[in-house]
Specification:
Distance between the termini: 33 Å
Number of helices: 8
Structural class: alpha/beta
CATH architecture of one domain: 3-Layer(aba) Sandwich
Strand content: 25-35%
Helix content: 25-40%
Largest sheet: 8 strands, mixed
Shape: globular
Number of strands: 11
CATH class of one domain: Alpha Beta
Amino acid sequence: MIQTDNLKCPICSSSFTLGNNSKSMICSRGHNFDMAKQGYVNFCGGSMGKLYEDKELFRARRNIYEAGFFRGVEEAVSGSLKELLNKEGSVIAEAGCGEGSLLSFLQRENPGHSYIGLDISKSAVKMAAQQNGQISWLVADVCKIPLKDGSIDCLIDMLTPANYGEFQRILKPGGYIIKIIPNDGYLTELRQRLGKKAYEDKEVDKFFSRHFALICQKQIKYTFVCEPSVQEDIYVMTPMSGKADGNGSRDKVDSVTMDLSILIGRKEKK
């Protein structure tokens, strides 16, 4: 379900209207973007997102979500939305939404708002649109987000690279950003088996605070028991398993550590 109110043309920045039979989006200068039969719009086109078309990764991530691996994160972010957005009608977007599980959970738990999910992977967005037709799903690059200036009340960015310049642009004055980053213990069991180094503190929180007023930071840490049905998926769902270092291997892992920090920031009002 694509809503055009908050969208802008990535080519000329003008507004959109729906074309004939609501199967395309046309900007005021004539740039046309077709809507896929699944209900999403591809603003990248060409070969721009082909490097990110790992269908197995997104299939595995969907299974891991359904198994409850990210449940603690889902509940924490959902609770934060309830605290931050005290009225209905807010616009919530997720940059790097993947196959849409997190945003779909938030939409179910926090109805009454508009939701927009964007990711550079067409495969991921197609999966998301097939699962949930109540969200505006966009194939888009965070370097050029097709959303109007100051159109978003809350932006979510989980375990994906940030573009703080674009994030600042699309957030309303006083709007919120929720960023989820890995801590040292995140997936430490997999990293050991794959011969990967532990996550290092790259001062992401300090960099975040240079762009937004940090109003809250909290850690989410728990152990997830890997049932047989997700033994392989727990490896496939993370890009780091694509190539193991040294003698790394995909040995059976009975449990893995979830260790993340949630940073909540606010765009300053001018």
